[in-house]
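Before a colleague's protein record goes any further, I have to sign it off. Alongside the sequence sits a line of tokens, each denoting a local backbone shape. I want your independent view on whether this chain really folds as the tokens say. Where you disagree with what is written, explain briefly why. This is what I was given:
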Amino acid sequence: MAGKLYFASDFHLGIPDQVSSLVREKRLVRWLDEIRQDAEAIYLLGDMFDFWFEYRSTVPRGFSRLLGKLSEITDSGIPVHLFRGNHDIWAFDYLEQECGVILHREAEFIEYDGKVFYMVHGDGKGPGDYGYKILKRIFECRINQWLFSWLHPDLGLRMGLFFSRRSRLANFARENKLELPEPPANSMLFQYAEKVSLCHPEVDYFIFGHHHRPVISPLSNGKMFVLLGDWLVHYTYGLYSDGEFRLFHFPDETSIGRSQPVELAKG
């Protein structure tokens, strides 16, 4: 019998401040501790950190609980896959070498239990958003990465965290709310999934992060479109088991009468 696959995205550790980020990190570690009991594999679809840059001998301070837990899980033989998002685009080899995660830079097709999954963070996918697509090329340019690496880590990391904590996303996190994107059928990622599905009709599940809204909805051909939500407001994750993909909310320790994850309805 096939095991269980777990999926989550958009933790944005580091915002809106160190105190609330640490609370969120501890909740994430508790989730990882619980799912490792029956996980066949774990897929993290990007933006694990709100800002991350790896110097040759220096990485951002903090996140020791999460990095230690990821190392513990991969050491036990459970594969953890990390897809880079637009906020951790400068993750190079540290997480692979030190924590044992499998780092993905592009979309992946994965076959499991007779199903095909298409997974990617989702930034820059779909029609439009040309300004960001140009910016992404600038960030991915090796020359620009090399130039940034010459900044002293105290200055470079301080700059990155400064701008991330002033972002619109950080402001929403402080207010415990996020803008809701357009209805799924009108979203860029939904249109992108429809297009990919025409070329790859074998795909059963199209799974994305990035948009922060938890959604599970059929495409026009009946295949499933999934947005994993986030861990800033929704605290959601995906679970594939027994031939079905479902979304759940992971409660905090203070939730009365909600000690178990709560399944989200399709729609």
Notes: The radius of gyration is 18 Å. The chain has eight helices and twelve strands. The chain has one domain: 4-263. The CA atoms of residues 105 and 217 lie 26 Å apart.
